[in-house]
Every structure is written in C-alpha cells, then in structure tokens.
Amino acid sequence: MSARVVLFLAAMLGCLSVMLGAFGAHGLSNNQNTGYLETKYAAMEPKFVAGHSVPASYKYLMDYKTGVEYQMAHSLALGLVGVLMLRRRSKLLSVAAGCFLGGIFFFSGSLYLLVIAGPRWLGVPWGAITPIGGTLMLIGWLALAFVSLSMTTDSTSAHS
User: Fold this and answer.
1) What is the pLDDT of residues 133-154, one digit of tens each?
2) Bridge partners, 121 (sequence order)
3) Which sequence spans correspond to the domains of the chain?
4) Which pLDDT band holds residue 128 (cuts at 50, 70, 90)?
5) What burial letters (b/e) apply to 37-73, b meaning 16+ CB within 10 Å?
6) Got the DSSP string for 17-49?
C-alpha cells in the first residue's frame, strides 16, 4: 500500500468517524426518549456497567461512541503511518497500516452493527468479532513501536 493511499484512507476514515459520531448523537438517541435505541432496546433488561444498572439503550449508545472514538484515534494513527511511509519504506509500516485498517473495520464496524442491528444479526454475534479488531489495533501499535526503534534522525534536517 502506498503512502498516498494510506493518507487518503486515513482522511476518509477520519471524516467518516465525524459523520458517524453526529449520527450517533442525533440519529440514534434524543432527549425525548423516543430515539432509535430507546425504541429498539425498550423491552431489553437493564445492563450492568461499572457496577451500575443502566438502560440497555444507554449501554449500547456508549458502545457506539466507543466505536467512533476508536475509529477516530486509529484514523489519526493511520495518518501518522502514512506520513512515516513518505519518509521511508518499511514492511512494519505496511503491517501497521493494514492492522489499523483491519482494526477499524472489525472493532468499530462490529460495534456499529452490534448497536444498530442488535447483538445477533444474520446469525453473527457481533460482540464476538470486536476482539479481533482490538487485537489488530494492538498489533498495529506494536509494529509502529518497532519501527520507531529502527528510525534514525537526520542531523541535517534537525538543525534547519
């Protein structure tokens, strides 16, 4: 994957995270308790979050927000990888880019489907897919960490 493609994807995924965040804030829930999540999860038993009983709609809205936050953070990380790819070629940078992309897709994507479609849709337990994305994100960060250990500073650019 080229640096240009990685930077393009980072920008588009960042833009999409803002759009999805706005949709979550305005389309999934509202102040009159008649939003999509309130209706979809009205009959569901309350969930326990940090030792507190909360409505299922609130728990799922928090899950959705987690997906948006992780998508934005990893879009920025992907942008950093793209900038580093402009400076040097490295298999580890390609691994980091691929892992961040896969992590966004599996982690955030599964949370979006979990919340909007329900815990099981098309027979798939979406919550079971989320850790795959989280693992890919961790591998991406580790690859980026190992790239940093192999980088050298250019003494001419440090003083200009």
Assistant:
1) 999 999 999 999 999 998 777 6
2) 124
3) 3-39+55-149
4) confident
5) bbebbeeeeebeeeeeeebbbbbbbebbbebbebbbb
6) HHHHHHHIIIII--TTS-SHHHHHTTTSPPEEE
